[in-house]
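Researcher: Can you fold this with iron/sulfur cluster in place?
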Amino acid sequence: MPDALLSIEDLQVEFSTRDGLVRPLDGVTLEVGHGETLALLGESGSGKSVTAQAVMGLLPQPAGKIVGGRIRFDDQELTALPPQQVRALCGTRIGMIFQDPLSSLNPVFRVGDQVAEPLRRRLGLRRREANARALELLHRVGIPDVEHRMHHYPHQFSGGQRQRIMIAMALSLGPDLLIADEPTTALDVTVQAQIMNLLRDLQQERDMAILLITHDLGVVADVASRAVVLYAGRVAEQGRIRDVYDHSAHPYTEGLLASIPQQEEGGARLTPIAGAPPNPLAFPQGCRFHPRCPYAQERCRDELPELRRPVGWAPDQAASCHFTEEVLSRG
Ligand code: SF4
């Protein structure tokens, strides 16, 4: 893996809710290298978006707080900075795009002005320069007829085009890291592929790192080089994406991959994982996946598995499962 740009170590986040304290992240460790794309995978509620919020200083306040661990970005310890300083850093060196661009774009401003605004405010560019840069960015992300369209409002664009505009905004200050949280979930399959290709091309052109968060394992295989799979606030598996996809070392990853729609004769078919992710107010004892795991044994109900490298397997691959070797040998 390239040198770490973002390094998260044993991160623990707590939310105070009406029903009590919950810990949606419980000891997550991961790294994103300079210029690499890391896929952060898992079902809804696994802790992916909370990880992004913790990095960006965007945990809901006052309910959410980091109660353990560290987040380091380049040479700065983010967990030691006040949230407003983290957000200032994030505005420049870390860009973010979300699932729903409409909630991030201001409906009453023209998109060209929205892309140009941070260039004026943060970089001090004059209006003419900022507008020229905004036009360039919108052109690069594939907005057609951009001289004309940059004067339009967000509602005048399709969902895929709005996501492209969000990407242009996130890139405007030249971030070293882009966090993309479910960037294609609301889009149809063709547009999903176009956005993923765009992210891959931009990452290569700019040598930018990307933390790509998604529940959809089908969309990232050709874009990311490594993957971290989260389940119930902990790392279930990590490794090079090809190893994780071709030889899953954790039954949860195996289940996620089996649930990707397969185009077969007669249409799409999928095999969902039995059951549902656990309620964070009452995570099961032992391995948190055991109520859904087809391979669970007695030990799994009592003992929380640690992340470890399977004996004699790919050097970068690790899984939190007592029976990883058996899982791999079946694959
Ligand atoms: Fe399944 Fe047991 Fe492995 Fe957990 S530790 S994933 S329950 S086999």
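Model: Folded with iron/sulfur cluster in place. The chain is about 35% helix and 25% strand.
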